[in-house]
Amino acid sequence: MVLEVSGNYSIILPVIISNALAYLISLRFQPTPIFDVLARQDGIDLPSMEELREGHALRVEDAMRAPVTPVLSADDTVTKP
After folding, report:
1. What is the DSSP letter of 75?
2. Given this model, what pLDDT does residue 81 score?
3. Which ranges of the chain would DSSP assign to H, the alpha helix?
4. What pLDDT digit, counting tens, does each position of 5-36 carry?
5. For 40-62, how does the pLDDT look when each residue is reduced to its tens digit (9 = 90+)?
């Protein structure tokens, strides 16, 4: 993103190195991502990727149910009482 905004592709290598270094430092001092910490602080428990993979896959037919109102055809007319 920095490269796209700056338009200067001569800084690719320093950006990659600084990004990797910052990532390793953040892992060392705070192994839990900051967004997870902030979400838990607000009472939101976001599932991890492992929990999402273990969960039951939902399909469209699981959410569908039979209509409770009568289904009208295109030939039906509306009459005024």
Report:
1. T
2. 65
3. 2-6, 12-29, 34-41, 49-54, 60-63
4. 777 778 888 888 998 999 999 889 988 888 88
5. 899 888 777 777 777 777 788 87
Rounded to an integer, what distance in angstroms lies between the CA atom of residue 46 and that of residue 36?
7
Rounded CA-CA distance 76/7 in Å is: 62
Q: Which of 41, 51, 19, 1 is nearest to 32 (CA)?
A: 41
Residues with Cβ within 8 Å of 45's Cβ and at least 6 positions away in sequence, in order, are: 39
43: left (phi over 0), alpha (psi -120 to 50) or beta: left
Residue 2's pLDDT is: 72
How many residues comprise the chain? 81
15 and 2 Cβ atoms separated by less than 8 Å: yes
For 71, 72, 79, the CA distances from 76, given in Å and listed in that order, are 10, 7, 10
